[in-house]
Amino acid sequence: MSQLKVYQYPKCSTCRSAVKWLKNQGHELELRKLVADSGLELKKFFNTSGEVYKSLGLKDKLPLLSEQEQLELLAGNGMLIKRPVVTDGTKVTVGFKEAQYSEAWSA
After folding, report:
1. Which ranges of the sequence are coiled-coil (predicted)?
2. Rounded to whole angstroms, what are the CA distances from 102 to 27, 61, 98, 105?
3. pLDDT tens string 39-51
């Protein structure tokens, strides 16, 4: 089977279930701690311009939620996750802003 790179939050039960399932299917996994390895704050992973974020009123609610509650929101609805997530194995960017990409990814 193929090796998969899994960006996860180890305390997230959904992530743990996915890792278990993939291992049971015979995949070799490279587990990456999405938030911890990124060096970014958790709030940076929310797609703040998305319809779901706005319809749930997360601009006001997010600061009141625990880290676990925020992670459960992200794990439960992929539309809340800012994308793309780009990594070279040492640094991570979330979303796209040309200036940010120039700083992080210029040769």
Report:
1. none
2. 35, 32, 6, 6
3. 788 899 999 999 9
